[in-house]
Protein 1
Amino acid sequence: MSTFFGSQFGWTAETVESVSAIQQDAPDFMVNAQVNHGNQDYREGDEFRIRVVSERDAYLYVIYQQSDGSAYQVFPNAGQQNNRVKAKEVVTIPSADDQFRWRIAAPFGTETVKVIASETPIENLSSEQMKSKRFNVVSKDELERVTNKLVNKNAVESQESVPPNAEQPAQVSKTWAETEVKVTTYARNQELAASGAKRFAVYFGVSEYQFSKQAELFTEHNSNLSSPHRDAMILNEMMNHVGDIHESRVFVNEQATRANLESMVTQWLPQKSRPGDTVFIYFSGHGGQIPDDGGDEADKQDELLLPSDFIGLPECLGLLKQAEEGTITPENKALIPALRRIIQGVDSAEVAHHKLARQTGVTDDLFAHWLQSLAGREIVVILDVCHSGGYVTNEKSISDPDAISRNVPNRNHAPMPSDFLDQEVTRLKDIGQSNTCVLTASSTSELSLVRPDGNLSVMTHELIMALQLARGPMEIEQTYGVVAQRCAAFFASEEFKAMQKGNEELIQPHHPLLYKPTQQKVWMKP
């Protein structure tokens, strides 16, 4: 494998399917992998090592797939047969006291380190044969069996009309986690990819929700918004002007789907950027909370981003009503069997809503798992969403205050810290990925508001103005300070007081927050 033995011993292993097919869409815990070259580039003859940490006690398996498709289990192996590890225990492959050296050899190209952590042993990878050598061939059939066992591919394929934006069905095991690292290997005299840090950005703004009319059949409120699509487009223009962005992508309204958000974070950004680059991920739209199902949240709530194709209980009931009346479109009709399956047998409307929201929204746990694809980059996540929780379909609106969720908490206290991703970023830091900072428009208990003219959200407007008016470079901390000051000034203005008149309990100031767990400098405006 681009390893010690691939070409030197004169044989190649059987070509296999991609190890990237082993994906856990709803992990209860995280596992992290790092390689010994920060830029993830290796020349022929370079020494190669892998560092792995699991968030929980687990059985670890590491598969290395070469550029030619051949795959090998490299842990456990002949020198490291015990793959049962304790939570947060650092495992290096080869181990620090091992005299064996893993050196890069042909074939060369893009190669994948896939790490799997399972709370129970994986039968197909645990046999004596699979740890009898340093590099143990994983055949195509074996890899397919492991993939089917973990991802439950057959069960997924047998489900009728699974929504394209849904997570794996509930019967898929969540007692395992995975991550992967892409490395690039080069021949000794081959030219390496151009170096020099670059900056990339993706922007999502959802003003129009695909199933808002269906939700309105039951809530009597329209969940569409006025500003998020403009938030995304105008912030993109400003960052392209002053932020030295090398390349960006913008998704608004019907384009801002769950699948596109996942694709941008886990595929486009990792493919375009390299370790050492900076990536920006922006989302403006609805946000909410559902009960935590992994035991990692101090407030016992998982936060949600709501993409344009989100389906909560109101949307689901509206679709079912249209199906019964015969007024549903063929495209939406195809969703009905899967929606019925999701809510079948639930004992309350609340539980049904939570199940739907978890499968069609983006939880903070899932988003953090996606961020693992960007290891080695400086990551800036900017969120202009509500953190108030509640019934997540009608939260971010000031043009129609009555449409705001009825579950608005008491405002007569200091703002609670924003919980979206702060706990998850801490967890990532604990297992070795610490280069993410998060800027949010509001705290956990607050709604994020839109300016009186309806053109831009308050925080995004002040962020754009801060970037436009700044003289010279601005680090993220300085940018946050200016944005917080500008928001406070707006909320003290007569303009805001006029907007509040008659709706003071619903329309309250909100407080931007910055979560930055590292001391590394991050530049909003270089």
Note: The first helix runs from residue 140 to 151.
Protein 2
Amino acid sequence: MRKLVPAVLSATVLLAGCQGGGGGDTTTSNAAFDPATCQGGTLTVLNQGGINHLDPARLYTSGGGNLPSLLFRTLTTRNRQAGEAGTKPAPDLATDLGTPSDGAKTWTYHLRDGIRFEDGTPITAADVKYGIERSFAPELPGGAPYLRDWLQDAASYQGPYKQPDGIKSIETPDDKTIVFKLSKPEGDFPFLATATQFAPVPKAKDTGVDYEKHPISSGPYQVESYEPKKSLVLVRNTHWSQKIDELRYACPDRIEVTSGLDSAVINQRLVTGAGADASAVTTDAVVGPEQLAQLGTGSELDKRVTRGEFPSTTYLAFNTKKAPFDNPKVREALSYAINRTSVVNALGGSAVVGPSTTFLPPQKALGYQPYDFFPAGDGGAPDQAKQVLAEAGLSNLSIELAYENDDSEGIGPKVASAIQEAFKQAGVTVKLTAIDTATYRDVTGKPATQPGLSLATWGADWPSGGPFLIPIFDGRQIITAGGNFNLAQYNDPETNAEIDAINALTDPAAAAARWGALDAKLGKLALVIPLTHEKDVYLVGKNVRNAYADGWRGQLDIARISVK
């Protein structure tokens, strides 16, 4: 999906969306942590992003999300560990990762014994099916779109309020079994089954658009109070048991979330650690310049930092249907000219981003294979770029670069200026065109209005090469009406066939190798210029224990944090 700005419970959370192989530096205070005795205390969460929705149908999250994962269990969830182990899905409500049949076009799940809603009602397969069907309702927009495409005959389904007969390709032969019939093989289905749309919803308690005022919990916590975009208070769900949910530790007795705060304020409060802030964390305010300057000095602050990597890439997107970018030589020349060091510096330095010459970020689960077909070195190779342009009979090239008019998404004026200067060294004149951030995706995502060259960013919905490469390079994903992410407008039957072949694989390791090979093949075409991959650095309060970045999204896993 699009790059995830890790907003709490946002409809665009980058699973989500959304959202890799990042490790987790645990704080030194973790030595005394014991999940068997970690219960107690209040965890404070300080965030920038607003709590826009609490309805699982409207949340674009994968891996169960972060805070959503405390309320909603799904068929599968992330493995909740740092590093490579954390990039794998794990059973949650289901007893296993699902049984594929019919060449991965059918997936069967069986529910665990003893799982219950917050009111003590047993969770059934029908509740999971109904929760999924709600996510199709136009009244509840915002969720991940995959099921509409993947399920047989579901593309036109309008949800249970308009079509109460439901989706026939989801079968529930008994209370413990749910079967999904897909229109094509999908080996990544266990990853998709982590999405919040797979959370059960009791039909009898569904109040439509008002359901989010108090959604019925299947996780370790339930809602005590909720003020949209401002605050959320969670307390224990007494009908949840760690005996049948070994992945969530659920240490704090209470979790209090405040949103809409400035990132600088959040980080300063975490540094100071006064009062409740001593037991505070953030899920979306990465460490700012002031705090970064203090790290690595051996200070007390070094003991309260955790580092991860969300699988995302910032890149330059060529519209190959527009001159001069329809000429491969132009794309190759600009690839040589790029100065990735200046881009890294524009984005805050090597602590928060790393240079990328591949479209897939450097994470094993995605299938990363290193390559650099147009080596620009640390500072660009302008002479090589000039030579390629001369071979193509081009000189005095002038181009236009579109970018967002602010730097909030990392594709704004700072990066655009760095690129303009790099291309200038190669004799290429760049006219900068700022587009309002609020409408940027509308303009760049519609082929009729798409610029020839634009800054873009992409994050994987789950740790696999598929959600990274398919939206960007599958020609069947080109959407002419708007919302298009295949900005190269690249449509190659051989590439499309390889995508289908990889999708049929149910072995993640085998699929990863094929995704990496496909990335390298596409990289030779210079359809994009990869610029950087993301690194995430978070601070935690001085009383927080077991704080680490999970391997799935590179963010703190609140389900395992303790404040006791």
Note: The longest helix spans residues 508-523.
Protein 3
Amino acid sequence: MKFAVQSISSLAAVLLGFLLLANVGITSAGRGELESLTAIEKAVITETIQPDGTVVEFNELTTLVKSQLVVDSESQADLPYNSTLSKLEVLEAYTITPKGEKIPVAANAIRTVEDDNSSGAAMFSDQKHKIIIFPKVTPGSKTYYKTKLTTYKPLLPGYFYTRLIFSPNVEVKSYEYNLSYPEDLKLYTDIKDVKQTKDEVVDGVRHVSYTYQNLKMKKKEPYQVSSNDYAPHIYISSFPSQEAFAKAYEERIKDKFIITPEIQKQADEITKGLEKKVQNDPKLDLKKEQAKAIYHWVARNIRYVAIYLADGGIVPHDANSVLKNRYGDCKDHNALLITLLAAKGIDATSVLINSGNAYTLPKYPVLGPFNHVITYIPAWNLYLDSTDEMASYGTLPSDEMDKPVLLTKLAKVGRTPKPKKEDSEMATGISMQIEKDGRITGKAHTMYFGSAAINARYKYEGAETSYSEKLVKNQLAKFRQTGEGKITTSYVYDLDKPFTTDTEFTLDAIANVPGPGAMTVPIGLAPGELAAIANDRPPEKFTVPYVCSTRMVGESYQIRFPNNTKVTRIPPNVSYKKGGIEYEATYNEVKNNIFVIRKLAIQRPGAVCEPGELQNWKDFYQVFIKDMRGQIFYE
């Protein structure tokens, strides 16, 4: 969890929106049709904003359980809420059996529990959960609950929002949202593919209602962007723009960035000696070197621990306490980084961003899809994420590229850089000797750059510990090889240098030698990135935008055959260039040595591709897999 969303005035409504996104699986139903495993039979949300700002929300949800596959998951409801700012009451709950019998949920089957940290995340919060355990749930049953959520304090002064997103992947028979609020309260509404059924004022109170239904669910597609980007929705906000929200948020957090003597001392210590370094190298810029040093220090020395108490879901702790404790979440990392930079005269701002698959922002601020906070230095148009300890200075993880962001101090919407193929690159050199009995011994060296280096550093962390044997075994098994080997790497935390891996390996025979026979190019204990891409067959079609990669992968091989074997034929060269995809493969034979060079470069217009773009990849894929399956013949 990076950026906790808690204490919201419309929490139960958001929870139901999340339920619509996540609670249904899909199965085949005989004639090629799709049938849901569960369905939202009826959902009713009735929300009232009272004159004093208190929000009272009643939720009723009836779920139809269609399959045994989901009986366990649908036999209980999990309703989180912020126990400091809100009160959640379960007013009624029961199961309706397929025969129509209503079985109430026992009082002791409604429990309040603490936040579940079993996933291992370092997190402490005052979020609690009401767990409802339904009795006698079977296929054909319906579960029902009615709750009352009272929220006493908004996330920000005067801030109210509702964010409901209806996934096309979910069957919804009936959904109704009702909102009542003082007529003089200005709210901004953005709806898509939902029906407004009421808008009237009675005795100074405005009443609005919306309905939604989806009886023809769609199958979820691989790599699709978040439903936030395209699905039907109801967005309601008390702020007229994202920029207005940015100002309010910055006002709320501005006292967290005080340059205390402790902060100044730490900033000076981190940057000690850099002035002399710059004097000896006129190509260097002192401020940039200071920013780089401070960024790396925060990334390496501030442990990720999230403490979400009261409004801590969106407000960071003050920078000095983060420095003292040496831990914090993304907001805390950002607060300390900005304050240390300020101590050296470098201006920076907080950045709200989505670290998932959302690539658009709502017209009006409804908090989401923001779930993370990073840092921006305007002077160099530079984004930094100090919570990613494997990201070198100036490099963002791939899931933060080409994203809309809110620059809070500047009160403006921005966008992180679009991906460039040069910013995610892998280059591997492999040397292999085929022995007379068919075993293969070899070595591989790989260099990683940009976001590819981030992923590799995480993957190979611990490669030279007791974890090494498992890593080697898994890597060989990934490509259906057996054997043994070892992996060594450069220091994963040395972010100033490219990350590298070196491997030595012995493979059991993968072909009959001396032959006659044929074999594809072995992978050995190299990363095998091209082979992994070849094993990932593209879908037949997309109907919604999807996340697509921009990258470069190069692999070169030298394969030495034994003296008792003669190479008789090698694959033909391949050259492909179309639709932003370039691929080249060359094969040469010199005195029983086979030299292979394969290079793939993919440059997309952005991080998201439209459905029609899939055809470009499908066209290339047919050429690519034929080459990857090309064989070397010998006798």
Note: The two ends are 57 Å apart (CA to CA).
Protein 4
Amino acid sequence: MKRMKQIISMLLILTMILTVFSGCGQKSNDNTTQVNGENSSHVATVDDKSTTDDKNIENDWIAEMRDKWYVGKDITFDWYLNYSWWNHNKPWTEYPVLKDISDITGVVPNVSIPSGDGTEKLNLMIATNDLPDMITLDISDKNVNKLINQGLVYSYDELIEEYCPEFMDEIPEEVYRYTKSDIDGKLYGLPSWFVPDLMPNNASAYNVRKDIYEELGSPDMTTIDGFKGALRAFKEKYPTIDGKNSIALSLGENYGSRGIVEKSFGIREYYVDGSQNLLHRYKDPKYIEFVKFINELYREGLLDQEGYVKKRDQVKEDRSTRVFCTATGWWGLNDENAALDAKKPDSHYIVTEALNAPGESFEVGQSKLGWTISLITKAAEDPGEILKFTRYMWSPDGNKLLEYGHEGEDFVIEDNKVFRSEKYLEEWNKDKNAFYEKTGVHTFRFFQYSYWDNALYGAFTEEPDRANNRALANTYVTYDATPFIYEMNPDPTTAEGIIMTQVEEVIEKEYAKIIMAKSESEAIDAYYEMIEKMDKVGLPQLEEWWSAKYKSNVEKFSK
């Protein structure tokens, strides 16, 4: 927490004492700093709201919210997001909605992201004990337990008890039970997108260029023959686009989206044998069919030939120009869709029915745990203030502002459904990402709490293609993947953690030989050689650890 001491007059202190309510949501503090060298100009502050004659509706609303959620004046803290791809990089208060959050709470986070590998950056922070005040990372990241084991983060239990006891009543039992640490049973952070019950909310999908798909006669791509036939028809009709070789199927850099295609062959996160033991998913007997399929696509030139050398920006450019089909998160194609439609109307990506290998079905697991977890580190000078900020972000008030904007101006709620205003929809439908970047809506949703918002989320009006994408992708969610995900990464300093690192190194080195093999027999040989090398570095021992953890998780989440 960064502060500059100022001398505040006795009159100001008396005014603040009379004006600010006591309790978790409000705080009077004479150690203040002026953030970004400026004060809020469009809201009634704690110091002047009792005397202002401004009757502006927005000011009245913010003043009302301040009464509930004010933390202190000009508070800032360092917030590290472990995501190098995070693209909301302007100063916090340059986003109108985020500025509203600061005007309400008095808090302005100083956000940073890694420029390269986030894991390396975080490991360096831990090793040098040079930590920010708050860290947000994947809820399943192995560094969560590392931070807990080394005593580098506060538990929410102790902070809530000391600074904000009523916050505990606002965290549902399901969140506490599913998110608390197995190390000591304490809650070390709050999740985003927590889902108490399995509900459709899926991003993984097969996406095709709408214009080209329709030109090809909207072929059925749910069978292996139909899928390959559509890719071949595309390559025949469009061998090049804009002077470059066309790409029938893009799986991202390092073919990172191949997991979506694996699911078309019934491959899940792990393979569960007849004794309920967990084995690496590559040991699933069905995996050999996927090996044959992916290698054939590569040999025929239907799969991007340069997937192992391209970076994210190049993949994005390709998908904005010369790709027919992608297997990726459909929510993440907004920039590409905008670029395609700007060049040729109605040429954006739409979700198509998933490929289903013979006798199998396309199944996408969903974790109840959500996406991220945000931890308050012991480097924080005043963790209580950060806790109070997170309480607002977690609340229905904070969620509603960040997700939808201002009620009455940006949206209305009727019959438990959210309806965007015409003004909002006009900009949102034109370019969603530009709208989010302009307003701050839909950005820092690391405390997005689906539990309270289930009745509203996804019910708002949107253009037909996007609504269809959402509905079709949501049909893919068919099983609870929580037991496969919860704390399934061993501490990297343990024997199993070291083995896991070595197994991942083998995969990184050997998997390319499978995809790029010159014949099916070579691909199969490369696959078995990779499995053998994984076993040699200790995979069976890791699988024993996984099996014990999985059985524990099944018991934990079946209660």
Note: The longest strand covers residues 75-81.
